[in-house]
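[audit] Reproducing an earlier prediction to check determinism. Same input, same settings, fresh worker. If the tokens differ from the archived copy the diff job will pick it up downstream; this log only records the rerun itself.
[audit] input (245 residues):
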Amino acid sequence: MTAPVAGTTTPPAPTTTNPVGAAAQTNADALSQLSTNFQTFLSLLTTQLKNQDPLSPLDSNQFTQQLVQMSGVEAQLNTNNLLQTVANNTSNGVSTAVGLIGKNVKAVSSTANLANGQAQWTYNLPTGATDVKLEVVDSTGKVVHAEAPSDLSAGDHNLTWNGKDLNGAKLADGTYSLRVTATDASGAALDAVTYVQGLVTAVEQQNGNTLITVGGSQVPWNSVVSITQPGAAAPAAPTTAQGGA
């Protein structure tokens, strides 16, 4: 690495700007300025009308023309904002995510939808474990189901939960999460990954994030790890644990 020569000044690091954000800010500033100018114009026009010479009234064609011009500028700025929104949606993955509708996907997610007394997850153990604990928790973080599966081998495993709590009571349909706690022979924690699988039925954008609906629950579109066509031959099914009695 070459040291800087004495007496010289290291140039500042170049700055980068987000062109999408810059364009949106420019449009917002332009609309704000246009609104201010329009209000000023109306105030001046009102003053002129109040103080005009009755014998020589103002030419209505002039201020009508100005109103039309301002309306045209406002319409153009609103069109720019609409185009910017379309560009933002495209860059955020909406156009890509729409292509997933009707396809079976597997996505990284700990949440699944309980419907008709059934919720399903897939979890992956990176290596063989000596102890695994599966816990289903509700939206408040309360554990509503827990079990210890017998298959502790590495790879994918399925959990199908029947929607009953620790006392055997049937819970309401909704979104629940799976928490996997696994340790190896040395007692070290294993990083298990949980997935949901199913048919994509909808695409939605919330706060700039593109979400897809899989099996009734929403997950980020960029969490998808595999895509298959409906009816395509499925890989060998992993071991399945049945949650609940």
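[audit] rerun output stored. Observation attached for the diff report: The CA atoms of residues 113 and 217 lie 5 Å apart.
[audit] end
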